[in-house]
Amino acid sequence: PIVTPVKVKLPPAARKIYKQLEKELFAELSDLQNIEVFNAAALTNKCLQLANGAVYTNYPSWTAIHDEKIEAVRSIIAESGGAPVLLAYQFKSDLARLKKAFPSAVELSLAQGMKAFRAGDAPIGLAHPKSLGHGIDGLQEVCNILIRFGHDWNLGERMQMLERIGPMRQMQAEL
C-alpha cells in the first residue's frame, strides 16, 4: 500500500480546548457544555474525538468543534478523480458528520449500502473497522483508496480494514 499521512492543523479555538483538556482533564466548550475525564484512558479517547472534530459531552450527545478533518477528506476525495473511496470512521459522531458532509456516501454496515457500493452506485463507502473486517470480500473490485478519518489502538482491526482492499486483494482482483 501507498500510505500518505495527511496532517490536519487544529484551529486555534479547538487547540485551546485540546490543550486545556490535556492539562486539566477538564474543558469548557463555547456552548457551556463541559468535558471532564477521570483517567488517562478517557483522556486519550476525548482527545481523539476532539481531533476528529466533535466530542461527546453527555453520551449520546456530542458537540461539533471543527470541520478541519472533513475538509481534508473532501480534498482527498477531490484528488481521487472520481474513484470510489472507503472511508473509515471511529465514533458515531464522526459517522453523522460525514453523512451530512457527503450525502452520496453509503453505510457499508447496511445491506443496501454495501450493495450500492459494490455495484459502483455510491462514490463513498462509510465503515467502522469493527464491522468491516473478517469475512467481507469483493470491495477490491470496487475501490483501492482507504481514508482513515479516525483512529484507535487496535492494530488487528486496522490491518483487517486495509486488507478488504489492500495489495493482496488488488492482486486477486487482477487474476
Residues in helices, as a percent range: 40-55%
User: What is the C-alpha radius of gyration, as a whole number of Å?
Assistant: 17 Å
Task: List low-pLDDT spans.
Answer: none
Task: Find the count of extended strands (DSSP E, 2+ residues).
Answer: 8
Strand content: 15-25%
Question: Structural class of the helix and strand makeup?
Answer: alpha/beta
**Element order: H for helix, E for strand:** HEEHEEHEHEHEEHH
**Alpha-carbon distance between the termini?**
18 Å
Overall geometry comes to elongated
What is the arithmetic mean of pLDDT?
A: 90
Number of helices: 7
Q: Going across the major beta sheet, what is the strand order?
A: 6-7-5-8
Polypeptide structure, described:
The protein is of the alpha/beta class. 42% of the residues lie in helices and 16% in strands. The chain has helices at residues 12-24, 40-52, 68-79, 92-101, 111-118, 155-163, 167-174, and strands spanning 26-28, 34-36, 54-58, 61-64, 85-88, 106-107, 124-127, 146-148. The strands form 3 sheets. It has a 4-stranded parallel β-sheet, sandwiched between helices. The chain has a two-stranded antiparallel ribbon with strand order 1-2. A two-stranded antiparallel sheet has the order 3-4. It is elongated. 30% of the residues are buried. The mean pLDDT is 90.
